Amino acid sequence: MDYIEAKFLTTAVKPEQYPDTFVPEIAFVGRSNVGKSSLINCLTNRAKLARTSSSPGKTATINFYEIKNSFRLVDLPGYGYARVSKTEQERWVKMIDTYLSDRYNLVQVIQLVDARHKPSKDDITMINWIKSFGYKPVVVATKTDKLKKSQLDPNLTEIYNSLELDDNSILFPFSAQTRQGKDEVLEYIEAVCKNFTN
What we know:
Elements (H helix, E strand, L loop, with lengths): L5 E7 L12 E6 L5 H9 L17 E6 L3 E5 L10 H17 L3 E9 L6 H12 L5 E5 L6 H14 L7 E4 L8 H16 L1
Parallel strand pairs: 2-4, 2-5, 5-6, 6-7
Antiparallel strand pairs: 1-3, 3-4
């Protein structure tokens, strides 16, 4: 198992708290408890780099992780958690929108969806936002280990169709448990970041 140099850099809730902008950033977005922290830990081979929680809605900040001193992974607050107050949800939405709209060194937004379920209205809203800002639609379907083999392809097809993906899109099946898709996601991220710096 290859060790990847990675460290937690900082946490932020407003632009003046963001780290300097000379490093390309990849942002992860998705519903609460979809597995963003688990993805980050899997990609870096670090069990506890990003804190995972059994309680959805715990990540209420933007968390920045520096990888190999060459790019950053950015964990955005999860959306769509009903038990959080409407005021808090609106605050999170504004936080996410501010980062995604104004961060000029943001090179890719990667959306996570749960492979077990049909994408929600919030998922569809997010992929449409990603498309509207000109980012390539890249989706990671998490928790594939919880599906039977006979369920995987039909579920991926439903995700593909519900999010209206096309030949310009990428859909990665992923499991933090089996590490399915880890190498493919990491290779894509490194390629995109390399293009930014060249």
